[in-house]
Amino acid sequence: MIDGIRSQALEWIEAGHDAMTRSDDAAARVHFADAAALCEGRSSESDLHARALAGLAQLERARGSLTEADELARRARQALAESVDPDPLAAVEVALETADSTGCGDPDAEVRRALDLATAIADGPTRQDATVRVLRALGALQRVHGRYGAAATTLNEALAMATARFGTSSLERAGILNELGVVSKFAGDWAQAVRCYAEVQVIQDAHGLADSADRATLLHNLGGLEHARGDLGRAEPFARQSVELHARTLGDDHLTTDLDRVALAAILDGRGQRGEARDLLETAIPRLRARLGAHPELAVALNNLGAIAQGEGDLERAEACYREALAIRAQRSGVDSPTLAGTLNNLGTVLRRNGSIEEAAAVYERAIVLLEGVVPNEHPTLQALHRNRARIDPR
What are phi and psi for residue 375, nearest 5 degrees? Predict the structure, then answer.
């Protein structure tokens, strides 16, 4: 009977992960909840209880329910600690979820620990599956901290392993390519980003995902790429489609839909449609605050709202938005992260217009130092910083 229970729990947990790969969060939630209920109170299955709870935590975090996610992660750690001979994947999955927890002091160390645990798994296919997942998480973390070169290296390693393990048309591979496209965008490698996203679309089409949350995420990323390249006319349709499709597949008030609204607002502001852009941000920002607290995604929204206020001549509000956004990014990514550069450029311009010339110059210089050697010299943000610095001191 015990073996039957364990076998059933494993089946549901794997089904949950398969559903998450397809962005079918509703099915994943049912599978993980069933596995957690089956294993709860059974000491011999406490490791599988931990895996199921970690899966539920991941789903809650994606929804922006951080308090619930952190509590589930805490319970997962407790269940794992009670296991005498845990399933190797349990320790990996709990470590990954711990790294994402709000109060984690050193997410990088937790992910590195997960990587060590994954590579020590004896079973070959299981080891490969776990290592691919951890490398993808590590690459995403490196990207958030602005370590774009390291992120690209990590993700390319994950991509090679996923290709060998799952084949060229797998959804696992598409997920890694999507993340690699985002990294390439931030690093200014537009051509690589285009290649990644084109391949993601081919894979999604092969799996019948043209009308799915996965496609909405790709549309979001395509809009972000065109925005970064300065083609707002091409960016806007992608961003609008992303909002519509995520609202339809995940819900109008889902965290991901609100993040789409933030991205669309930045594009609309650049096209002079400030009223609609402001409405989108004033809808999204209070919900982001309530769900995420001081989170990088809130920083993005505040930066965008600051840009609108700046365009309307409300320099006091713009400066407050930019400074709060910078404080959040510095807290999460470090004061030397290149992810601060865009907002520093915006703050410098507000300071220059306010007559705070010396502080503006120092802000521009700081941003230039953060970006030089990280992105190509022709990167638009770096070029804008040099132009703005030259307006103060054309040396």
Answer: -120, 160
